[in-house]
Amino acid sequence: LRSCSPGRARRTNASRRACLVARFGDIYAQERLDAETLLRTYISDMEMVQRIIYIAAVESFHAAKMAYRQFKIRVRDTLSLGHSGPESLEDTVLDYIVRHEDLYDVQASVNEVIRSMNINPKISFPPEIDFIVISTLIRELCRVAFSMQTLIPPLDIAFGTDGELFSETKYHRSFDSDFTAALVAYHVWPALMENDVVIVKGEAVTKR
Question: Which residues pair with 172 in a beta bridge?
Answer without folding.
Answer: 203
